[in-house]
Write a structure and sequence with these properties.
The chain has nine helices and 25 strands. It is α+β, with helices and mostly antiparallel strands and 470 residues long. The chain has one domain: Purple Acid Phosphatase, chain A, domain 2. The strands form six sheets. Strands 14-15-16-17-21-18-22 form a seven-stranded mixed sheet, with helices on one face. The N terminus is likely disordered. It binds fe (ii) ion. The site of fe (ii) ion has 6 residues, from helix 5.
């Protein structure tokens, strides 16, 4: 019996090694909006152990396979982790709104084929999903991946906490790629990432772990994602960025893997269709009371004046009625800047439920009760005066006076404060809707001057809806 067990262990080890060595990809190809953020391009990334092969990417244009741009790669050679390579290609000359077939070739042999949704133009209708706090490897995360796929969106926006619990490369392997880039739409997940790009802001679970000795594969966001690099830059130890900890060799391994994506890629803006997106890092190491950082948002929103819609996305909500994370109100500080910049909707996560505010404007207190100047506490309370537009209902009155703040942090992780769903007395005055009895995602259909919003649960049912019209 003992001999049989040893034989079985040996056989299984032999086969698992063989399967790994025969596999072309460590992570199958997935789409990103790219460092350029161009309306006619998408980035395509994949991970492999192999650097010796010749790789190619082709797209089908006018019924002919055409070679894409130059491919480059970054080596990820971090401690305690099997070395691998992240390849980056660009699908270019995309025709807005059209599906485009693409294929990946290794040594001139096609090893992967799919289609992609090309970005929509300013005049085309489009659909997108927003869902935060997702990579938790729960049954509901997978069900919501199926729901997203059935809705056929053009992209998915993730307002932080992409993978739990530390943003590690290893966690992406189990909790992210297999669910959002599954081969089929089934109980394991859905083939979303190979057909549409995801866009993300970082959350505390993605970017708070910065000791490369404790977790050498932390901050994997910087080498797994390819998003625009048009945000503010500053050194480690500044208002924007903490100092990376760990031995020189471990830190260098991270810098080498992340290349120019670090540190810029956590704050950026991006235009999709008729909307401008400002995506920022609200983690507690960023000091948004810093005037230079504020000025970047002010200028970014000014430059977006030709867009019909303006959306802002970050992780920690300023306006939250849940008992969980209630005191983390520091992002309220930026409300006057968002209002001056004519922002329509702010999308947040962090709090694992769904909340919709009344359209509101907010003036932060500059003096406290004793008359002393208010000091902004990172992760602390921030009192002030809000003005609520209670005449807006999104059905008969579709013209909000103020910004609508959406908490959509129920994308997969266990829910917070379900008991508050039916206790409106426990909500803050600015909260119009609160739902925490099922995991949910936000689904938005954009039709020129219309923003049609639905919050959808794991059964595909709508639990809240409203429309904004311009
Ligand atoms: Fe969070």
């Amino acid at each position: 019996m003992k001999c049989l067990s040893i034989l079985l262990i040996c056989l299984s080890s032999f086969f698992s090694k063989n399967i790994f060595s025969q596999s072309v990809f460590i992570t199958k190809p997935y789409l990103q909006i790219g460092h350029e953020g161009s309306p006619n391009k998408l980035a395509l990334l994949w991970h492999t152990a192999d650097t010796a092969s010749e790789w190619g990417v082709e797209i089908k244009l006018n019924n002919r396979w055409v070679r894409s741009t130059k491919i480059y790669f970054n080596r990820v050679f971090i401690k305690n982790y099997q070395p691998f390579v992240v390849y980056h290609a660009t699908l270019q000359n995309l025709q807005n709104g059209k599906e485009v077939s693409y294929r990946v070739l290794k040594n001139k042999v096609t090893v992967f084929e799919s289609f992609a949704h090309s970005p929509k133009s300013k005049s085309q209708n489009y659909k997108f999903v927003v869902a935060g706090d997702i990579g938790a490897l729960t049954k509901n995360q997978k069900k919501l991946a199926n729901v997203m796929f059935d809705l056929n969106p053009d992209f998915v926006a993730v307002p932080g906490d992409i993978v739990y619990g530390h943003g590690l490369a290893n966690e992406y392997t189990t909790k992210f790629w297999p669910i959002y880039n599954a081969d089929n739409n089934d109980s394991t997940g859905a083939p979303l990432l190979r057909t549409i790009p995801f866009m993300a802001s970082v959350g505390n679970h993605d970017a708070n772990d910065r000791d490369m000795d404790k977790t050498p594969d932390a901050l994997a966001y910087y080498y797994f994602w390819e998003q625009p690099l048009n945000g503010p830059y500053d050194k480690e130890g500044s208002a924007l960025l903490p100092i990376l900890k760990g031995s020189e060799s471990n830190r260098n391994a991270f810098y080498e893997a992340a290349k120019n994506a670090y540190p810029k890629m956590t704050n950026f803006s991006y235009d999709y269709g008729n909307a401008h997106w400002t995506v920022i890092d609200a983690d507690s190491y960023v000091n948004w009371s810093n005037k230079e950082l504020q000025n970047w948002i002010i200028q970014d929103l000014k430059k977006s004046s030709k867009a019909m819609w303006r959306f802002v996305m970050f992780h920690q909500p300023g306006f939250n009625s849940s008992k969980a994370h209630f005191e983390e109100q520091h992002m309220r500080l930026l409300s006057p800047i968002f209002e001056a910049g004519k922002v329509d909707v702010v999308f947040n996560g962090h709090v694992h439920n769904y909340q919709r505010s009344f359209p509101l404007t907010f003036i932060p207190d500059t003096m406290d009760e004793s008359g002393a100047r208010v000091k902004i506490k990172i992760d602390g309370k921030l009192n002030g005066k809000w003005t609520l537009d209670k005449s807006f209902d999104g059905i008969n009155n579709k013209k909000p006076k103020g910004i609508i703040y959406i908490v959509t942090g129920a994308g997969g992780q266990r829910l917070y404060n379900y008991e508050q769903t039916n206790l409106p007395n426990s909500w803050q005055p600015f909260t119009d809707k609160f739902f925490s009895t099922d995991n949910t995602i936000s689904f938005i259909e954009m039709e020129k001057n219309k923003f049609q919003f639905k919050q959808i649960n794991t059964n595909g049912e709508t639990v809240d809806s409203f429309t904004i019209e311009k």
